[in-house]
Structure formats: C-alpha cells, structure tokens
Amino acid sequence: MKTKVFYLLFILVLCGCSKKTIDTSLYREQVEEKRRQDALAKAAKQKLLDQQRAAEEAARKAEAAKQPGYLSDEDKQKFANLLNTDVSNIKNEKLYSLINEWLGTPYLWAGLTKKGVDCSAFTQVIYDEIYDINLPRTAEQMFHYEQTTKFQNKKYLKEGDLIFFRLRNKEKVISHVGIYLQNGMFVGSNSPRGVEIVKLNTNYWKDRYVASGRLPIKTVE
Questions:
Q1: What pLDDT was estimated at residue 68?
Q2: Which pLDDT belongs to residue 5?
Q3: How far apart are the C-alpha atoms of 180 and 130, rounded to whole Å?
Q4: Where are the alpha helices (DSSP H) in the chain?
C-alpha cells in the first residue's frame, strides 16, 4: 500500500514538473514572438520615416530647381573682376543679374527704358525690383525721402546704399544718385556713358560727393 502511494505521489510530481516545463516553454515562445513583432514594427516605422525624409528632400530639390539661376559662373566672375573682389562676395545674385541687364544702357535725361535711362530712374528700377521699395522720381526727392537715413562718412557704406552727388546743376544741392555695391564701387546711369560700375574714390566723384543714404532693405549675407 505504501509503495502504491509513493508511486502515485511520484507520478503527480512528474506531471507537475512537466506542466511547469510546458508553461515555461510557452512563455518563452510568447516573449520571442513579442520581440519579433516589436522589431518588425520598429523597422516598418523607420522605413516610413526614411521614405518621408526622402520625399521631403526630393520636394526641396524640386522647388530649388524651379528657382531662377540668376547668374552664371561666368557672370559672377565678371562682376568679381569689375568690383576687384572674390567671386564668393557676389552673393546677391538677383541684384547683380538685374544690373547686368542694364549695363551699357545709354544715359538719357528723363529716360525710363533700356533705350535710355537717367540716374534716378535706374535707381528706382533697382529698388523696386530688388528691395520692393518705391522711391520718389528724382535724386533730390530721394535724398529728402523720409525713409532715407543720411550719413557722410563713406567707410560706413554697405551694398544697396544710395550715394548722392552735386554735378553741374548749381541750383540744386543734389542732382545725381547712384547705388553703392562693394569695395569702393557703385553703379549708376552716368552721363555720357550710361549705366556703368565706377570707383567712388576717383577725383571726379570725390569732388562731387555730398552724402549717402540708407533705406530699410534686407541685405544678403
């Protein structure tokens, strides 16, 4: 009888151990399956993020491709030579592209087109198309324009500043205007040569220089 009881207990213990072994194996399988599912989900999420980034980059490049290339490398070098500076300093391509369109246009008093243009009309064109500022018609009016902050020391000049001169008209304090570029050079429609880039510190322009003016424009760094 005792032997039977002992065998019965032994069988029950074995069954319990087997059940625990089965339960442990099932748990391990469930854990491994969970890990696999998490890894798949993570990989899918990363793939989606990569696709989104690739799509955004493609869209950015497509948008950039739509933007006009204002200056060719040759034109950049041309302006670098004219201004006696490095090509890397030709940053406002839109400005120099517009100047390039007008270079060589004949000077014409009261002229408004590329068949002939005077100093103030040319300055108006640059400020309207590049800086979105509608300047008054004449050089004298620009000088007295309420948004023009005037100064005389030329060492403070920045690209886009107005430069005012007194030329042949003795009755006017201001009779000519140009636009400062960089490295001591400015652009303007000058009689008799028309639209050109010239040195500010030549004797001719130094003797006729009155003041400079700065307007609230955005500069390209």
A1: 57
A2: 47
A3: 14
A4: 2-66, 73-82, 93-102, 119-130, 139-143, 203-208
Q: Which two tokens stand for residue 179?
A: 């636009």
Low-confidence stretches of the chain (pLDDT beneath 70): 1-24, 53, 56-69, 169, 220-221
Q: For 180-203, how does the pLDDT look when each residue is reduced to its tens digit (9 = 90+)? A: 999 999 999 999 999 999 999 999
**Residue 41 — φ and ψ, nearest 5°?**
-65, -40
What H or E segment, with its residue span, contains residue 180? strand 176-182
Residue 102 and residue 136: Cα distance in Å, rounded?
20
The whole model's pTM is what? 0.68
DSSP letter, residue 220: P
CA atoms within 13 A on the CB side of 142: 29
* The CATH number of domain 77-214 is 3.90.1720.10: yes
Can the peptide bond before residue 192 be classed as cis, meaning omega within 30 degrees of 0? Answer: yes
Q: How far apart are CA 136 and CA 138, in angstroms?
A: 6
Question: CB of 127 within 8 A of CB of 137?
Answer: no
pLDDT of 54: 73
